[in-house]
Amino acid sequence: MSTQIVATTQISQMLAMQDAMNSRVSETWRENGYEWYRAIWVECAEMLDHHGWKWWKHQEIDVPQVQLELVDIFHFGLSLRLMTGASVDDIASSLTNELATASEETDFKLALEQLASAAVSQREFDAQAFADCMRLMNMNLDELFRQYVGKNTLNFFRQDYGYKEGTYIKVWHGKEDNEVLADVVSKLDSSANDFQQQVYDALAANYPS
């Protein structure tokens, strides 16, 4: 199977999962007027803090946290693309090509600002700028897929365990749920057909009773 076919398949799966998650939050999510573009640029600002930008003090790049923010942004980017009304196949094909067309940008901060700028000024998801950010954080599509499926599954898990009602427990035995998720995903095979179910089951096994 070619790399492009694998990429398109992974993106199609993520689009389907995003639609399912959005529908879980609200069955009318496409008509609700959610500002997905705003979520993107706000996450960009948060990501910049994890990367570091202050020239007057020493800062180290928190790569895992930056990657996690990229995954969150991809959730919003997929939602924006789904809002166009195009078919999942067409969106997946387009994103596959755009994500494979990174520029020669070498400064992560500038790539991130391009991503944020497109969200603010055009209310769009700039997949090429996103690809630049991924590349500069040593993140390929396989890693994006692995982390995306994990975070999407955690989002479903949160809903199932009372997130909207305010009864969900965020800290599990001294660790935030995102940290537990990272531990869980690192031990599983993301190529397994039941990868998502394995993640969910492992989260359930670790959740404080």
Helical residues, percent: 55-70%
Q: Quaternary status of these chains?
A: single chain
SSE succession: HHHHHHHEEHH
Mean pLDDT: 93
CATH fold descriptor of the largest domain: all-alpha NTP pyrophosphatase fold
Roughly how many Å apart are the termini? Answer: 43 Å
SS-derived structural category = mainly alpha
CATH class of the largest domain: Mainly Alpha
Radius of gyration: 17 Å
Low-confidence stretches: none
**Share in β-strands:** under 5%
**How would a crystallographer describe the biggest sheet?**
2 strands, antiparallel
Provide the domain count.
Answer: 2
Q: How many distinct beta strands?
A: 2
Organism: Thalassotalea euphylliae
Pfam families: dUTPase_2
Protein name: dUTP diphosphatase
